[in-house]
Design goal:
alpha/beta; 7-stranded mixed sheet; Aspartate Aminotransferase, domain 1; Aspartate Aminotransferase, domain 2; 4-stranded mixed sheet
């Protein structure tokens, strides 16, 4: 497979942008080589500037649950574009998107639209501190909540990939009020509240983590989260930027039967356009300006294009209910990959929840950042390139989840498994 045009375009990008990219996860730093430059997407496939076709399991890192260029989303965008791109003023579309989210997500009574998942978590943290009058935030190693200074501590994703658990530029003063605990460890959480319970404003957590690979919060851990925050009058924030509307129509909390105080969203609710949101109980949300005193603003928040794409996407998900089929496809992919790895004698562990999944090159169950960090990242890199050269586009890091879409077919899954079988055989070769 030739990538001459990709290489030429990326060489130019290197001269224009830091590392040649506008987000570090795109840089292929964890797998080596140069990133692929894409020209277009259609359904479950991406096409690069050299004319190569790939089955896409990245989905723009999660938003494209309907696949690329879904007719309903494209039609909604064309209609909105004819009216204008941004007004900096209220629109009816904001109401419609807000109503769809509130109807779907069990814990959300009021919502504020923003422009990214990072904005959503940053704003939710500020609101939690303003509402409780406390300063300390608890997060978990391997959970990534965007590039918020106070939360970019022991994070997964690109920070883990580049071995930068604490980013330069994040001051000690900014990070001092963030307590980092191991994921899926109720005991550590109990100890934290025993020591700092009267200072903790909120606990923020991914109920289904995606940036140390796909790892689901265990029931006893989630029970401790809810029980301890209630007991100590702290807020529980579910970061569902990734899992929201992906693992179920109402997100992970709907699938698991949980009820956090605040929820952050992004990705899917924008239908492929930049968007984020945070919401929760009305009494908490009414502390946000102009209803209350906690400041948060955004020039392009709730812009008509993002709202239109989000509305169209959520309506298709609500009315078409692709989730049972996504579960079937995921089951088929998990079974196929496990079988192919087993036949080659390659130890793997697959973490998955509905349409999110990670194949870990590890012989142990991955339940937290410690176990994730022991995966064979070199073997993953070879696996990535082996699949890419066979027309299968996977996340370019062991610590990122792959995403299925409603556009994937059984034939796509079977083609992926056949390609993986060839790659596993190469990895198992004595010459490898």
């Amino acid at each position: 497979m030739k990538h001459d045009n990709s290489q030429r375009i990326f060489a130019r990008a290197i001269r224009l942008m830091p590392g040649g990219v506008n987000s570090p996860a795109r840089a292929f730093g964890a797998v080596g080589g140069q990133p692929i430059v894409f020209a277009r997407g259609e359904g479950a496939r991406l096409f690069d500037v050299d004319g190569n076709s790939y089955i896409d399991y990245v989905g723009s890192w999660g938003p494209m649950i309907l696949g690329h260029r879904h007719p309903a989303v494209i039609a909604a965008l064309e209609e909105a574009l004819a009216r204008g791109t941004s007004f900096g003023a209220p629109t009816e579309a904001e109401n419609e998107l807000a109503e769809l989210v509130i109807e779907a997500v069990p814990s959300i009574e009021k919502i504020r639209l923003v422009n990214s998942g990072t904005e959503a978590t940053m704003s939710a943290i500020r609101l939690a501190r303003g509402y409780t009058g406390r300063e300390m935030i608890v997060k978990f190693a391997g959970n990534y909540h965007g590039h918020v200074d106070s939360l970019l501590v022991a994070a997964g994703s690109a920070a883990a990939t580049f071995s930068v658990p604490n980013s330069p530029g994040v001051t000690a003063g900014t990070a001092k009020d963030t307590l980092v605990l191991p994921y899926n460890d109720p005991g550590a959480l109990e100890q934290a509240f025993a020591s700092h319970g009267d200072r903790i404003a909120a606990v923020i957590v991914e109920p289904v983590a995606g940036n140390m690979g796909c790892v689901t919060a265990r029931a006893e851990f989630r029970q401790a989260l809810r029980g301890l925050t209630e007991r100590h009058a702290a807020l529980l924030i579910y970061d569902e930027v990734m899992s929201g509307f992906r693992v179920a129509y109402g997100g992970a909390q709907a699938a698991l039967g949980d009820r956090p105080d605040l929820t952050t969203l992004g990705k899917i609710i924008g239908g492929g356009l930049p968007v984020g949101a945070y919401g929760g109980r009305a009494e908490i949300m009414d502390h946000v300006l102009p209803a209350g005193g906690v400041f948060q603003a955004g020039t392009l928040s709730g812009n008509p294009l993002a709202a239109a794409a989000g509305i169209a996407t959520l309506k298709v998900l609500r009315d078409g209910n692709p989730y049972p089929r996504l579960q079937q496809l995921a089951t088929r992919l998990v079974s196929g990959l496990e079988g192919a790895a087993g036949r080659a004698g390659i130890p793997v562990s697959i973490g998955w929840f509905q349409a999110m999944m990670t194949l870990f090159f590890s012989g142990e169950d991955v339940v937290d950042w410690e176990t994730a960090s022991r995966c064979d990242t070199r073997r993953y890199a070879r696996y990535f390139w082996g699949l890419l050269n066979r027309g299968v586009y996977m996340p370019c890091s062991q610590f990122e989840a792959l995403f299925l879409s409603a556009a994937h077919t059984e034939a796509d899954i079977d083609q992926t498994v056949r390609a993986a079988e060839e790659v596993f055989a190469e990895l198992a070769s004595p010459d490898a």
